[in-house]
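Teaching assistant's notes for section 4

Start the section by putting this record on the projector. Ask students to predict, before seeing the second block, whether RNA-binding protein will look compact or extended. Collect guesses on the board.
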Amino acid sequence: MIKLDQFLKLVGIAPTGGQAKLMIIDGDVKVNGTVETRRGRKLVSGDRVTVEGQTFNVGDVIQ
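Reveal the predicted structure now:
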């Protein structure tokens, strides 16, 4: 498992944890098609994260 803010840093969408937090709080991030405002949301393999029109499959990024 990985937290949403950490995932955004890992895939390069947010260069810092602070920026990841702002993106999440501003409602710019969707998890499985639903806006997610909890930066500590735990992601598991199979979850899909969409930001700025890009969708990432969690299982493809973390092993």
